[in-house]
Amino acid sequence: MDLKCVDPDLQLDVDVMILDFLIYSAIDALLVEVNRSDANQGVLKADDALHRVNGYLATFNANHEKSPDLPHVQFRLQVLQFITLFYNDNSPAIRSPPLHALRKLRCENVTRAKQWHRKESEPVKKLFRTIKRQGRQIKDSHAYRDGGCYLLTILPLFMRLSIQMADTAPSESWMHLAASFMLQAALEHFINFRPCRQRKWRKMEFALRALREAFAWGCADSCDEGSDEHGFQDMLWPQSESQSEDEGGSLDTWAAIREEYLLKFMPPRTRSLEQHIKDMQVQYPIGDFRSRMRQFLRTVAVSIPPPVLVQVEAGQLFGLSREKTAALKRRCGIDTL
Asked: Which domain of life is it from (predicted)?
């Protein structure tokens, strides 16, 4: 079927519909790959879908230098980016972005962590002192995956998606999921230390920075308008709540939940830090977290209206009668669907 047409506006409409459909299909392929009985076939299908998106996106950008404002398509593309990175380990050769792109993702979060460091509570300060003291006794038993796509790297993307889809203050269920993400991100860095040639105190400083970086969301006194941190604080403390009797709103709830999860890293007196980190891996299995995240990502994916081509295939566009839907199909040259 030849979808090329003389009218540039119509061509843009058709290209947008195709791009949106390809992104939608890639998201679905990524989310179902973990449930397939044949995991390799699921990964191959998802990677093929990603290749189609990348190829068509390059063609789209070449043909349309000034793309219109397409909030649904842009948000769906951000969802695809996050899911691709979240399931990076399933196919690292295909899904790993360049190192400079990974570093850029973490840049703002490092600044946020420095701001939070200046106003940590006394229990948190005690936690960091304990980790710094005991961390020097940890053996060099783990290799560092240089260039890996860590959870800490994609944590800002998770927050950005949550901010963009929020129309009310977040639930405590979401707060616990976000805090679990932070816990797993920090735990991953304790497990994967820097190369052994570095001194142990340097490796522990690296882990401590990761711990601060993971848990530093929603605590800055001031932040630039339009930044992720500004959006996060708006999500936690909507203007409609600012004059309520509960002056802190959900911001106070979030601060308590965040500190609760952070203090889980404090080892008991009877356990060394190394033993405690191993205990945490058993107590908070990564598989359970990934299962909860998959459910969250499914919710995010269906929060966006289906692409036009999916609606057309069903026989009716949202807000249009079947007759008007049929007329649109003829206009765009997709009446054979």
From this structure: Eukaryota
